[in-house]
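Following up on my earlier message about zinc ion. Here are the inputs again, as you asked, copied directly from the submission form:
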Amino acid sequence: MPKAQALTTPAVSGKLLATAAGFTGLMLLLAYLVAFDQGALSQSGMYLHELMHDGRHLLGVPCH
Amino acid sequence: MPLSNRPGYLPLLLRGLLAGLAAGLLAGGFAYLAGEPHINAAIAIEEAASGGAGGEAPLVERDIQSTVGLFLATGLYGVALGGILATAYTLLRRHLRTGSDTQAALGLAAAALTGIVVVPFLKYPPNPPAVGNPDTIDQRTAAYLAVLALGLVAVWAAVLAARTQSHQWRRAAAGTAAFLVVVGIAYTLLPTFHEVPADFPATLLWDFRISSLGTQAILWTALGIGFAGLITPARQKATVTAA
Ligand SMILES: [Zn+2]
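Thanks, got it. Here's what our run produced:
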């Protein structure tokens, strides 16, 4: 296997890992908002949950 | 904004989010055309079963759910998945044994499509409205999350197993075997739910499930291709100018 190749991504550092973990958390929250939230996160009651109802079904998430 | 030869995390993340938004909206278009008719048919069955439409006024009108709501859901989901793909690419690129960034990005998207779409779909095929027992929603949600995680573990196991072999056909065989072992164990241990009402039309169920699979497949395929496209041209240009 070719071992030496030009790196095309940033060097892994503690700072990079912390930033990546932070954004991953944000992205998971966003996915949670679409897929599972029932108002606890959105603070919109059931409004956002109902609004995104069809998307949830077609994205394969168990809905009800 | 062109991408530098060795971009930082944020430029890659930005491209993942953009590709995710585009892929989510594209998947939403497919879901609207191919999936909405089945959702509407299932809701009509649900309402007929509960003694006609009516009851309390819905919080969100059907027309809004099937248009704005649908595209909002697939768009936001695409953004989230795009951000996660870009992050995975940033951290895993150096471990992927390919000289091609395009191949690396497409490979990660294909791994995700396999692990968190195909593996979950075959164990817990999605259901239209009117199918599913509300009493088991918590168990089904937990099982769904478990099968997503195990799907990713299966793909990871396949890669590790393939790397223990040197000949190409042995790599394929070892990877496939490891994948099937993990999936087999997961499918056996995870609970099974049989909740489709006996009189629910089989063709409607099938058509809905295929449209859901198509929606997710389009999302991941477009995300992979879009992300690969957004990260490679600048690099190729940079290589050409440097040469
Ligand atoms: Zn539903």
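One observation from looking it over: The mean pLDDT of chain A is 88. Hope that helps, and feel free to reply on this thread.
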